[in-house]
Each structure stands twice: as C-alpha cells, then as structure tokens.
Amino acid sequence: MVLPSEPEFEQAYNELYLTLEQSTLFEKKPNLKKLLPIISIPERIIQFRVTWEDDQGIIQVNRGFRVQFNSTLGPYKGGLRFHPTVNLSILKFLGYEQIFKNALTGLSIGGGKGGSDFDPKGKSDNEIRRFCDSFMRELSRHIGGFTDVPAGDIGVGGREIGYLFGAYKRYKNTWEGVLTGKGNSWGGSLIRPEATGYGLVYYVEKMIEYAKPGDSFKDKKVAISGSGNVAQYAALKVIELGGKVVSLSDSKGAFVLADNESEGFTPDEIAQIAQIKLQHKELASLESKFKAGKFKYLAGERPWVHVGKIDVALPSATQNEVSGEEAAVLVANGVKFIAEGSNMGSTMEAIEVFEAERQKAPGSIWYAPGKAANAGGVAVSGLEMAQNSARVSWTREEVDAKLKDIMVACFETCVNTAIEYSSEKTDGLPSLVKGANIAGFIKVAQGMEDLGDFY
Ligand code: NDP
Ligand code: 8G0
C-alpha cells in the first residue's frame, strides 16, 4: 500500500470527491467531473525561509508558506497558521476547503492559506514581533489587497496581525487592506473577532429551527472543544441564547462540568480563559481559580466521551478532533446537532457515523461541516475588505446583521442544493456536507468556465 504523502489534503479531497460522486451532480452536469483534477492543484505555492533572532541574540530558522489555491471569485483569501505541526499537507487541505467555503459566503473572495511551523508558545512578545517582521519581509512580495489577503488562524491573533500589518506597511510603503482581523483604529472591522463563533451559532440556530420549527438554543446542552478565538465566542453566543456550555478544552486537556445538570460556563469564566490564552498559558492553570467541584479537569483528554447526554457538539479546536469512536459515543448519548467551528474537525470515520445515523433514523441527527458552519469568520473578513475599499466603518449592529444574513443564506444554499442533487431515498434532513460541497463546487466551476480556466 502506498501511504498518502499529504494525508490531510487527501482526506479533504476524498471527502469532497465522495460527496459529489454520491449525488446526482455528475449525471446532471457530466462535464464537471473533468474539473476535479484541475481545481485540486493550487494555482501557486510559495515556500520560503524565515530567519529571526531570539532574545539571546541567536539566529533561529522556520519554514514559511502561502498556498494560493484559487483566485476565480476574488483575491486569494484565508488565514495564516503558526503552529509546530504546520506543513504543506495541512496548508493545502485548509486552502482547498477555503475555496468552497468562500464561495458559500456569496462574497468576492478566492481561496488560500498560509503559515509557518513557528511555535508562538513560550516566545516573548519581542520574539513574536521579530518573527512576524521576518515572515512578512518575504510574504509581502506575494500578497496585496487585489492579490491575496491573509488573516489570522491558530496561533495568529490580533497582536500578530498588528506586527504583520506594520511590517507590510514598512516594506511596501503602502497602507492597504492587505490583511484582515486588523485592530479597530487601523482599519479592522467590528465583530471580526466574534465572527466565526457567532456565525457558527447562527448557523446551528437555523438547523435547530429547521429540524423542529419553533425550537431554539434555550436550555440546550452544548459541548465545545478548544478554548481559542472560535470556541470562546461560540460559547458566549450559546450562553446569550439561553443554552448551557458543558465543556471547553485545549491541546493539554478538557474542562467538563462535574454534574451536567448544574450551571454551565459563565461569561466571567470565559473572560478568564481569554486572559490566560493571551499569555499562552494552559487551561489547566485555571483549575484552582474556578469554583471548587464545578468542573472536572481531564488531562490529555478531549471532551466528547466525558460530557454525557448533550444536544449540540461544536468541535472548535483543530482538524481530526472527533474520531469515529467518539462520534459513536456522541450518537449513543443523544447528540442531535454537530457543527464544526474547526476546519475538518471530524475524521472521515466520524462523518460516516453521523451521516449513516442521519439516513438510518431520519430526523435524529444532523452534521454540518466546517466549510459551511464556520464561514462567518472569513465572511466578516470579506466585509472588512469591503469597508477598507470604501474607506468606511460599519457599526457593530450593521456587521452583525450582515453576518447573520450570510449564515442564513449559506444554510439555505446547503439545504436547497442537497435536496436538488440528492440521490438518497430518505425524506429526512438533507445532507449538509453534500449540500455545502456541491454548492461551493458548482459556483467556482461556473466562474472557472466563464474565465476560460476550464472548458
Ligand atoms: P486559536 O489559536 O485561537 O485556538 C485554537 C484552540 O485549539 C486552542 O484551544 C488550542 O489549544 C486548540 N488546539 C490547537 N491545536 C490543537 C491540537 N493539535 N490539538 C488539540 N487542540 C489544539 O485558533 P482559532 O480558535 O482561531 O481556530 C480554531 C479552529 O477554527 C481551527 O481549526 C481554525 O482553522 C478554525 N477557524 C478559525 C477561524 C477564525 O476566524 N479564527 C475561522 C474559521 C475556522 P492550545 O491553546 O493548547 O494550543
Ligand atoms: O479571515 C480569514 O481569512 C480567515 C482566518 C482564519 C480562518 C479562516 C477560515 O475560514 O478557516 C479564514
């Protein structure tokens, strides 16, 4: 057997391919089958060396990347990830998913992703600033407001975007909307930090309503993984809507409610998490700060098999964070809605468990993939680009209303497309993973045909 050389990318490719194949798309539009091998090769990949000086004055070196996957619908758009696990397979999978997600937002944005195997953990602020400056020294030659507009992702937040934007401006002598996730006083959009988590919850709100008209987040038990940008704002929105957050986690372990009938995470506890995350501290450091006995801290564990009976699961940490076995436990514990804040949060086996259950017991369970459910982040980045181009700033209310409209439209596109191209026998809940993949694929395919990139 030949082992996959790019396992994460091949997983993302196979998921897309299988869902298209298991629909009537290629019967209805046979020509589109020829597009798959074309759309699956990035238009361009940039790889570069990043040397930087640590606080001891010693030279350090990392790998830098930008995958410019598809620019049919607009400039390449997608985040930058700084994490020791970053490699081309991971950035290609993320860039690939980004193409179809960005198409689902309805905005003029192409797909890309970049980053570095630099580990921000344990680094001083000065080291992070020097790294960002070196990284941008090379990246600045390849990006621009009309070419490629990066943003943050895992390990890249507001502080890093500031250092990167400052470096770009110095190297190019140009103030332009070349990055999103900027600070408010220097071109950022209100609601961008909240957008992915809020958008995820807006999307799930529509799933809940569709499955049972009149139903809402009120009193729903919600398990969330991760404790970064996406997880924090998803948790806050769930609480605002009357739901109960029963878990949060990081790469070292998970906090799970000791008694899943008691009060869930509070906004104050989430504010404490946000505070320690800025200093790159572990979640475990809060164990003594939280009310004694309220949570169990499970070192080295993910939350899924420990949360008991829940209604909603929102994986919001990283790729492949729900295994087939964990998915089976979630199903056995009655989970009804699974929606990914993270990109490719579920393994292929987990998706199979959720999709098989959806078809076996119509109305029982509904899974939404990241490329639909977490599209709110990049959508508000698209709105940040629009504000920069028009040199205006919209209010929180304006941006939040647009975000909600985009998530509702994205949900409806997924549902309607799944129904239109379904080859399933059941008349239960339509497959959102098929709907999202087919709708995103058709939109980019149409554009590529119009531009003569595919015929
Ligand atoms: P952050 O860096 O803010 O937070 C990441 C969280 O995930 C942290 O709790 C981190 O734990 C945990 N984590 C990271 N790597 C791993 C790992 N290998 N195993 C277990 N836990 C891990 O990132 P975001 O919240 O921005 O991103 C989370 C996910 O959401 C990613 O998949 C990202 O691609 C996706 N996403 C983000 C968007 C955004 O706007 N930010 C938009 C759409 C999707 P620790 O602190 O211990 O490292
Ligand atoms: O704003 C962005 O371009 C961005 C940043 C981080 C992640 C994502 C994503 O959609 O995965 C987009």
Question: Would you mind describing this structure in some detail?
Answer:
With 455 residues, the protein is α/β, with parallel strands linked by helices. Among the domains are: 40-173, Leucine Dehydrogenase, chain A, domain 1 (Rossmann fold), CATH 3.40.50; 195-373, NAD(P)-binding Rossmann-like Domain (Rossmann fold). The protein has helices at residues 7-21, 25-28, 35-39, 88-104, 125-139, 158-172, 192-211, 229-240, 267-278, 324-332, 348-360, 370-373, 375-390, 396-420, 432-450; strands at 44-53, 59-70, 76-82, 111-116, 148-151, 221-224, 244-250, 253-257, 295-299, 312-314, 337-339, 366-368. Benzene-1,3-dicarboxylic acid binds at residues 77-79, 98, 101, 151-153, 180, 343, 377-378, 381.
Characteristics:
single chain, 455 residues, alpha/beta, Rossmann fold, seven-stranded mixed beta sheet, five-stranded mixed beta sheet, 12 strands, globular, binds NADPH dihydro-nicotinamide-adenine-dinucleotide phosphate, binds benzene-1,3-dicarboxylic acid
Give the overall form.
globular
Q: How many helical elements?
A: 15
Low-confidence stretches: none
CATH class of the domain at 195-373: Alpha Beta
CATH topology group of the domain at 195-373: Rossmann fold
Order of helices and strands: HHHEEEHEHEHHEHEEHEEHEHEHHHH
CATH architecture of the domain at 195-373: 3-Layer(aba) Sandwich
Number of strands: 12
- Helix/strand/pairing class, anyone? alpha/beta
List the ligand species: NADPH dihydro-nicotinamide-adenine-dinucleotide phosphate, benzene-1,3-dicarboxylic acid
Question: Largest sheet, if any?
Answer: 7 strands, mixed
Q: Strands of the largest sheet, in order across it?
A: 9-8-7-6-10-11-12
Average residue-wise pLDDT: 97
